[in-house]
Design brief:
Layout (H helix, E strand, L loop, with lengths): L2 E5 L2 H13 L5 E5 L5 E3 L2 E3 L1 H10 L17 H8 L10 H15 L4 H11 L5 E4 L6 E6 L4 E3 H7 L6 E7 L8 H9 L2 E4 L4 H9 L4 H6 L5 E4 L2 E2 L2 E2 L4 H7 L6 H8 L5 E5 L6 H6 L3 E5 L6 H15 L3
Parallel strand pairs: 1-2, 1-9, 2-5, 9-10, 10-13, 13-14
Antiparallel strand pairs: 3-4, 6-7, 6-8, 11-12
Helix pairs in contact: 1-2, 1-13, 4-5
Bound molecules: guanosine-5'-diphosphate and calcium ion.
Length: 311
């Protein structure tokens, strides 16, 4: 049995937390977005990988939803004193992760290898695979025409500005790792996590070979909607969809994923859209999808697995 998840940050991490309760964690593999990754103060920072690792380790800060619990920000305060870049908060404990990763990458280790070392050190038994060992960089065009890096949009501008386009620099030249292709192809069920479809899932699909490998097994793929009642639970996914001319509803999600997955899991509050989505050619499962309690995430993972497994 293998349960593979296409993953971004928070939404995916909450799903994975349920999956490792529902199944043997050794059977759970996440293919994780790297297009949010950035270099700050010379340190390589991989927000989606770290969110998945810290969440699976039960070490995530429960209030913020990112970074480590029991965190302090003394290094940031000193940086601020120098007028250094302090708009992207890196906690003192979290800095240890970035120091380790940066050193290992400088020694020539691949991101896949370093990620395995970091997640093992946190006792994570699921497999976390960066989609590629190559660098991919999300670039966001603001409505005014200026192009900025993803973290500048997301953190410095607090995603409170309108956008007109998104692109993934380096994606066409990136190679998926062999482990990633194998995890997609050999999965009993492949789940598209309830992550931001534009900046978490799309950059995974833009890596050559991933989109076709996912499409080739459509019947056994299940997508979970990150949009509930026309809104993202957190973050700008709904606004980004609207600004790029899409419908920020489960119907808009179905349009994006209909060629990739046979089944769409929507929240029960959206069950009125079932017929409309089924007319578009996707099977619909309407269940509770707000994973504020681990029990909901576990039941969601079980429902997804069953929907994708051969009948
Ligand atoms: P980020 O990379 O940390 O921004 O996180 P992701 O891309 O993985 O996820 C962001 C999306 O996850 C948002 O659109 C949220 O609506 C969605 N999300 C977060 N938690 C949940 C949840 O419990 N249920 C569902 N259905 N979606 C969620
Ligand atoms: Ca992210």
């Amino acid at each position: 049995m293998r349960h593979t998840v296409l993953a971004g940050g928070v939404g995916a991490a909450r799903y994975l937390r349920g999956a490792v309760e529902a199944f043997d964690p050794a059977d759970v593999t996440a293919v994780v977005n790297v297009a949010d990754d950035t270099t700050l103060h010379g340190l390589r920072v991989c927000p989606d990988l770290d969110t998945c690792t810290y969440t699976l380790a039960d070490a995530i800060d429960p209030q913020r939803g990112w970074g480590l619990a029991d965190e302090s920000f003394n290094a940031m305060a000193v940086l601020g004193r120098y007028g250094g870049i302090d708009w992207f908060s890196l906690g003192d404990r979290d800095l240890g992760t970035h120091l380790y990763r940066t050193q290992r990458l400088a020694e020539g280790a691949a991101l896949t290898e370093v990620t395995a070392e970091i997640s093992a050190a946190w006792g994570v038994e699921a497999t976390l695979l960066p989609v590629s060992d190559d660098t991919i960089e999300t670039r966001v065009t603001l409505a005014g025409g200026e192009e900025v890096g993803f973290q500048e949009y997301f953190v410095r501008l607090a995603h409170s500005v309108e956008i007109s386009a998104v692109r993934f620099a380096g994606a066409q030249q990136a190679r998926p790792t062999a482990a990633v292709l194998e995890a997609v192809e050999s999965a009993e069920t492949l789940v598209i996590a309830p992550s931001n479809p534009i900046v978490s899932i799309q950059p995974l699909l833009c890596v050559p070979g991933i989109d076709s490998a996912v499409r080739a097994r459509r019947a056994r793929n299940v997508a979970v909607s990150p949009i509930i009642a026309g809104q993202a639970l957190k973050g700008p996914a709904d606004r980004m969809m609207r600004e790029l001319g899409e419908q920020a509803t489960v119907v808009g999600i179905a349009r994006r994923y209909q060629d990739l997955a046979a089944t769409l899991v929507i929240d029960e509050v959206d069950s009125e859209f079932t017929d409309e989505i089924e007319d578009q050619g996707m099977r619909v499962i309407a269940v509770p999808t707000i994973m504020s309690e681990p029990g909901v995430a576990r039941a969601l993972a079980e429902a997804c697995h069953q929907a994708g497994a051969p009948q």
